[in-house]
Amino acid sequence: MRRFPGMAFSLLLIVFLHLLPAAAPAAFGADEPSQTADKPAAPFSAAAASAELKRLQTEQDRIKQQASKDTTGNQLTELDDAVHRLLADVDTLTGTLVAERAKVQAQIDLLGPPPADGSASEAPAVARQRADLNGRAKALDEQLKKAEEDKESLGNLADQIGKLQRGHLKDQVALRSNSILSGDFWMPAFDPSPQDRQRFESLRSLVTPMAKQAWDADHRTGTVMLLALAFAIWSLGRRLIERGMAWVCLHRLPEHRLRRSALALSTALATVLTTALAVRIVLFAFTRDYELSEPMRDLADELIKLTMTSALIAGLGRALLCTRHPTWRLPSLHDDIARALRPFPIVLAGLLLLAGTVEQLNRTIDTSVQVTLFGRGLVSLVVTLTIGAGLLRANRVRAALVAAGERPGSGSTLTGIVLAGLTATIVVTLVALVTGYITFARFLTYEIVWFDIVLCSLYLLTKLTRDACESLFSVHYSSGRIIKQLFGLGDSHLDQVSTVLSGLGSSLLLLLAVIALLTGGFGTTPKDLLDSLLMVLGGERLRAMNIMPERILNAVIATGVGVYILRSVRRWLDADLLPKTGMEPGMRASLVTLFSNIGYVLLVLMTLSLLGVRWDNLAWIVSALSVGIGFGLQEIVKNFISGLILLTERPVKVGDMVNIGGVEGDIRRISVRATEIQLGDRSTMIVPNSQLISQSVRNVTMNNSTLGVASLTLTFPLNIDPEEVRDMLLAAYADNQAILDHPAPSVTFSQLAPNGITLTVTGFVSSPRIAGGTKSDLLFDILKRLRAAEIPLTHPQTLRLVNSEVLAA
C-alpha cells in the first residue's frame, strides 16, 4: 500500500503521454531551418527527429558533391551559407533532443529504480512503461550521437569550403592587390601575421624530425653517402651519358642531319633522367627510415615533378644552344648569340624550381592571401626580369653582329611573331605587377615558361621526326635499300613515304603541342583566366543570355590554329609531297586548290560547332540563303559550282593555253569564283568560272601536245608560178630554226579565185607559246624573199567614181 501513490502517479503519466498527438506538426525539416528558432517549440516527435537527421545527412551529401566540382566564388559562398544553416539546424535539433532526453530521464526517475527481486513483483503496466521509457532514452541517445557526428562533419566541411574559398581567392586572376612598389606588398617578408607564423611553424614541425633523423649518429654516414651519390649522378653521370650518346651518334648513325637531332634529344633526356634519379636518391636519403605524413608525401611528389620540369628546361636549353659543338646546333643561330644565352636556361630552371617550391609550400600549409600574393609577385618579377634580360642580351649581340657586317642567323616570320609576342607579354606582366594584378602577372609568367617548354620540345621532336624519316627511307643508306628490296618500291615511292610519314608525325606533334598549351601549364590555364575575367564582367549574366565567351575563345583559337595548319599543309603538299609524285604542275595546282577549299569549308563547320551552333537551328539561315541565292547570290553560287567542276573534271587546268572570246593566254590560277588568265602582254584577265563552263573554249594544250603550229595564208596574182612560190615558202620555213624538221613543213593550194590564188603554208614548232613569235619572223623573211624575186601579193579591188563613171582600180 505504501507504493500505491507512486504507481498511481505513474499510471496517470502513462495515460497523459499516450494522449499526446502522435501526428503533431513537425518542428524540423522546414525549408528555412534558421527561421524555426524564432517560433515556439512544437511538441516533440521521434519520427520528426529521425526525418530531420535524414534531411541533414542528405543536404550534407549534396553540399559535399557540389563542393567537389569546379565551383565559382559565388557558388562557394552559397555552399558556405548552406553549411552554416545546417549547423544552426543541428544545434536546434540537439537542444530539442537534449530537452526531451532530460524529460524522459525525469520520467524514469519518477518510476524509481526497478525492484531488487525482479519484475515479477512489479505491476505489468509499470514494467511496460519502464521498458518504453528506456527504449526512448536509448533512441534519443543514438539520435544525439548522430547529431554530434553530423555537427562535427559539418564543421569539417565548413573548414574545407573555407579553404576552397581562400584558394579560389588566391587563384582569382582578376584580383587586384597591392603593387610591388608599395610597402604593404613587402610587409609579409618582414612582419607576417600570427596565423602565417603558426602555419610555418607547423611546417617546420613536420620537416625538422625528418632532418634530425637523417643526420643523427645512426643515419649520418648513409645520408652523406647517398647525397654524394646523387651529386655524382647529377654531374658526372650526366656528362658520361652525353659523351656516350655522342659516340653512338657519330659511329652508329648515318652521316645525315639525324645525328644532330639525335644528339640534341640525348642531351635533353640525359639531363632530365639524371636529375630525376638524383632527386629520388636525395628523397630516399631523408625518408628511408621515416614515415611521411600525407601532406608531406604530396609535397614531395609535387617537388619531384617540379624538379623534372626544371631539368627539362635546362636540358632543352643546353640541347638547342649546343655551345660545345656549334656545328651540331639545330637552330640557325650565331655562335655569339648562343654563348650569350647559355646561362639563361639554367637560371630560369632554378628560378622556376624556387617559384614552384614556394607555390607548393603555400598550398600545403594554406597561407593567407597576402603571403601567397607576395610569393607569387616576387617569383613573377624575378622570372620576368630574367627572361627579359635574356631577350635584351640576345638583341644587343644581334645588333652588334649586324653592325659588324655579319649575319646573326636566318630568321623567319614565325620566329619574329613569337619574339614580338614574348616581348609584349613581358611588358604586360611588368605593368600588371606595378598596378597590383599579381595573380594575373603570375599567370602570364608561368604561361611564358610553359610556352617556351612546349615550343622548344615541338621544335626538337619535329626535327627528329623529319630527319629520322629521311634517313630511314633514303636509298643512300642500308635501311632504305632494305625497304626498297623488301617491298619492291622505287626511289620516288620511298621519297613519298618519307614525306608522308614526316608530315603525319609533324602534324601529330603540332596537335599535341596545341593541346598542351591549352590544357597544361602550372596551375592556371587559359580557361581559368577567362572564367576569372567573366566573373568581373558578369559572366553569369552573359551565360543567362546564352552568350558563352569561353566558346568564342575556343572558336577563335581553333580558327587561328586551323588556318595555320591548312596553310602549312598546303605548302607541304605544294613544295614537298606532290612534286615527288611526278604529277604535272596543273594537276598539282588543282589538287592543292581543291584541298584548300574543302579544308576551309570544314574549318567553318568546326568553328560553328565550337560556338555551339546546332544544325537543326540553322533552318532559318538555309531559308534566308535560298532567298538570297534566288535574287543576288546566284551568280556567286554558279561561279562557285563551276569552279568545283573545273577542279574535278579539269576541262582546263593551271598551265593550259586557252582561247576564249578571241583572247588567248595561259591559265595561272583557278580560284573559287574566277580564273586568272595571263595574256601575251603579261596582263591578267579574270574570267568568271561559269564562262569557262558555259562558253566555247579553245584549249591549245589539253591533249598534252607539246607542238605548236605556225600557219600562214597568202594570196598571190594569177600570173605567178605557184611551184616557184611554193619552193620559196618551204625554203623560208626550212631556214627558220624554230620550225621542226619532223613533221616537215607543207604548202597547200587553198583557193583559186578571179582575184588570185591562195596558198597556206604550215610548219610545227616545239611549243604553242612560241608560235606567234615564229609567225612574225617568218613573215619578215617571206616578205624579203618575195621582193627579191619581184613576186607581188594580190591586193583587193577598189572602186573609184570619176565623172559619174565607175572605174575599177
TrEMBL record:
<feature type="transmembrane region" description="Helical">
    <location>
        <begin position="500"/>
        <end position="522"/>
    </location>
</feature>
<feature type="transmembrane region" description="Helical">
    <location>
        <begin position="222"/>
        <end position="241"/>
    </location>
</feature>
<feature type="region of interest" description="Disordered">
    <location>
        <begin position="56"/>
        <end position="76"/>
    </location>
</feature>
<feature type="transmembrane region" description="Helical">
    <location>
        <begin position="413"/>
        <end position="437"/>
    </location>
</feature>
<dbReference type="InterPro" id="IPR049142">
    <property type="entry name" value="MS_channel_1st"/>
</dbReference>
<dbReference type="GO" id="GO:0008381">
    <property type="term" value="F:mechanosensitive monoatomic ion channel activity"/>
</dbReference>
<feature type="domain" description="Mechanosensitive ion channel MscS">
    <location>
        <begin position="636"/>
        <end position="701"/>
    </location>
</feature>
<feature type="signal peptide">
    <location>
        <begin position="1"/>
        <end position="26"/>
    </location>
</feature>
<feature type="coiled-coil region">
    <location>
        <begin position="130"/>
        <end position="157"/>
    </location>
</feature>
<feature type="transmembrane region" description="Helical">
    <location>
        <begin position="552"/>
        <end position="569"/>
    </location>
</feature>
<dbReference type="InterPro" id="IPR023408">
    <property type="entry name" value="MscS_beta-dom_sf"/>
</dbReference>
<keyword id="KW-0812">Transmembrane</keyword>
<keyword id="KW-1003">Cell membrane</keyword>
<feature type="transmembrane region" description="Helical">
    <location>
        <begin position="618"/>
        <end position="637"/>
    </location>
</feature>
<dbReference type="InterPro" id="IPR011066">
    <property type="entry name" value="MscS_channel_C_sf"/>
</dbReference>
<dbReference type="InterPro" id="IPR010920">
    <property type="entry name" value="LSM_dom_sf"/>
</dbReference>
<dbReference type="InterPro" id="IPR022249">
    <property type="entry name" value="DUF3772"/>
</dbReference>
<feature type="transmembrane region" description="Helical">
    <location>
        <begin position="373"/>
        <end position="392"/>
    </location>
</feature>
<feature type="compositionally biased region" description="Polar residues">
    <location>
        <begin position="65"/>
        <end position="76"/>
    </location>
</feature>
<keyword id="KW-0732">Signal</keyword>
<dbReference type="GO" id="GO:0005886">
    <property type="term" value="C:plasma membrane"/>
</dbReference>
<dbReference type="InterPro" id="IPR052702">
    <property type="entry name" value="MscS-like_channel"/>
</dbReference>
<feature type="domain" description="Mechanosensitive ion channel transmembrane helices 2/3">
    <location>
        <begin position="593"/>
        <end position="634"/>
    </location>
</feature>
<feature type="transmembrane region" description="Helical">
    <location>
        <begin position="341"/>
        <end position="361"/>
    </location>
</feature>
<feature type="transmembrane region" description="Helical">
    <location>
        <begin position="589"/>
        <end position="612"/>
    </location>
</feature>
<dbReference type="Pfam" id="PF21088">
    <property type="entry name" value="MS_channel_1st"/>
</dbReference>
<keyword id="KW-0175">Coiled coil</keyword>
<comment type="similarity">
    <text>Belongs to the MscS (TC 1.A.23) family.</text>
</comment>
<dbReference type="Pfam" id="PF00924">
    <property type="entry name" value="MS_channel_2nd"/>
</dbReference>
<dbReference type="Pfam" id="PF12607">
    <property type="entry name" value="DUF3772"/>
</dbReference>
<feature type="transmembrane region" description="Helical">
    <location>
        <begin position="262"/>
        <end position="283"/>
    </location>
</feature>
<dbReference type="InterPro" id="IPR006685">
    <property type="entry name" value="MscS_channel_2nd"/>
</dbReference>
<feature type="region of interest" description="Disordered">
    <location>
        <begin position="110"/>
        <end position="129"/>
    </location>
</feature>
<protein>
    <submittedName>
        <fullName>Mechanosensitive ion channel family protein</fullName>
    </submittedName>
</protein>
<feature type="transmembrane region" description="Helical">
    <location>
        <begin position="303"/>
        <end position="321"/>
    </location>
</feature>
<dbReference type="InterPro" id="IPR011014">
    <property type="entry name" value="MscS_channel_TM-2"/>
</dbReference>
<keyword id="KW-1133">Transmembrane helix</keyword>
<feature type="domain" description="DUF3772">
    <location>
        <begin position="144"/>
        <end position="203"/>
    </location>
</feature>
<keyword id="KW-0472">Membrane</keyword>
